[in-house]
Design goal:
194 residues; alpha/beta; five-stranded parallel beta sheet; 62% helix; binds adenosine-5'-diphosphate
Length: 194
């Protein structure tokens, strides 16, 4: 089973993707994790990505598209299926993904949007910042988180109507508790036999 999980930063996509991976056995493909691994490894790509990520901006499409589309075609991912978490994040990425999926005859079973109220996300960030000790790093972090939400609204959310028009989008309430969100996701996917 192949799944795309969509939703703004801070909506809990990563947590849910890990839960689905554990329960259903597909492989979680998180572009955020892949990029952080490149940053930690100190590769040239990682060094370039780091500044962009620290600002809350998106890494260039060709960089991300390259790493994801390579990985999708690996044998383990082909066998077990995948959960894309954090990709696609732009309309161009969605189009490139579709091209490869069509070419390789790979189907996506579910595209699921975790819908979250943007104002609430901003409130959560403010609350977290207020609870932390003050200092420049905290402020930077708060600004980066806010920037990511704006980037989601401007660059990622426009993908949703693209999938919806094709009748491929399921939407669940991402504001519910973590367990409740998991249950909603499982309801969309259908419970596994075991
Ligand atoms: P979050 O879970 O908070 O949304 P991620 O771990 O998915 O964050 O991503 C962290 C950062 O990595 C993003 O803010 C962005 O800079 C970069 N990134 C991740 N995925 C992509 C992508 N598909 N395209 C461009 N940049 C990406």
């Amino acid at each position: 089973m192949n799944i795309i999980l969509m939703g703004p930063p801070g909506c809990g996509k990563g947590t849910q993707a890990r839960r689905l991976q554990d329960k259903f056995g597909m492989i979680q493909l998180s572009t955020g994790d892949m990029l952080r691994a490149a940053v930690d490894a100190g590769t040239e790509m990682g060094l370039k990505a780091r500044t962009v990520m620290d600002r809350g901006d998106l890494v260039p499409d060709d960089v991300v598209v390259g790493i994801v589309l390579d990985r999708i075609q690996d044998i383990d991912v082909q066998t077990r299926g995948f959960i894309l978490d954090g990709f696609p994040r732009t309309v161009v990425q969605a189009q490139k993904l579709d091209e490869v999926l069509i070419e390789k005859q790979i189907g996506i079973n579910y595209i699921i949007e975790m819908k979250v109220d943007e104002a609430t996300l901003f409130e959560r960030i403010e609350k977290r910042a207020a609870e932390m000790a003050d200092g420049a790093r905290v402020d930077d972090n708060t600004e980066t988180l806010k920037k990511r939400i704006v980037v989601y609204r401007e660059q990622t959310a426009p993908i949703l109507p693209y999938y919806a028009r094709a009748g491929r989008l399921d939407t669940i309430d991402g504001m519910a508790s973590i367990n409740d969100v998991t249950m909603q996701l499982e309801a969309v996917l259908g419970n596994p036999a075991t």
